[in-house]
Amino acid sequence: MQFSKHLRLFIVALGLAAAIGIVMYGSGTVFASHSFEAGVSGNNIPDNTHVRLDGLSLPAGGVLPVYDASPNFIAGHLLLRSPCDPDTHVPVITVIAGHIDESANSTFVDKVPMYYISHASGPNSCIYHAHIPDPLNGGAPRVTDVALVNYSNETITFNGGDMVDVNVQRVLGSISDAPYTTTQLPSNLTSGNPVFDLNDNNTDNDGLGFMHKEEART
Questions:
Q1: CB 3.0–4.6 Å: which of 60, 74, 109, 113 could bond 98 by disulfide?
Q2: How confident is the model at residue 123 (pLDDT cuts 50, 70, 90)?
Q3: Helical H runs in the chain?
């Protein structure tokens, strides 16, 4: 079937509009729901989203949406370079993940457990790696959305080289088939992600995944 040039452009425009899952309006942030959609057939959609943060400022209470796979909840990895507390290495920005729906009753998000990578971090920014989801260390079990939130009372300005990268490796299912039965909104959370460090002398902060791996070796 042949389409005219104008019709092809219209179809492309519709596709782009459908692909945008997050709409910014004024100073507020509205997350669109895709829970009514069918999702993909199959279980693999290799995907990568890389967002440069250097030069950006996020005001107090601000939200920066990073990834939206709705209605599919996914498995993958997250890499973050962000300003951090020099003593605790907790990022000043909070990474949240889960499912954000138009209905509050269908919304559940939590903080993403982060691994601090000391040997790659610098004096101004820390580098973190995270598993999505992370069933051993906590966080939301079904992730369709990832966002950065400024829960502090001050504007956060990112340093040169700061970025966030989400690498999706597999689709685990559709949120419409496995909806959340409890509610936890972004406003229910506070500042700061759980941070694990495999390179310091404190073995109590290595995370359950690493502890189970060590137990399996002994």
A1: 109
A2: confident
A3: 5-19, 208-217
Whether residue 81 is predicted with pLDDT greater than 70 in this model: the reply is: yes
**84 near 163, Cβ under 8 Å?**
no
Q: Return the structure tokens found at 154.
A: 């001050």
Residue in this structure with the two tokens 């949120």, named with its chain if needed: 175
Residue type, 68: D
What global pTM score does this model have? 0.77
Task: Give 65-95 as a 3 state SS string.
Answer: EEEECCCEEEEEEEEEEEEECCCCCCECCEE
HSE-CB of 42 using CA atoms within 13 angstroms: 5
d(CA 98, CA 112): 9
Domain boundaries defined on the chain: 5-198
First-to-final CA distance of the chain: 64
Tokens coding 42 = 């199959």
Taking only the tens place, the pLDDT of each residue in 161-195 is 999 999 999 999 999 999 999 999 999 999 999 99
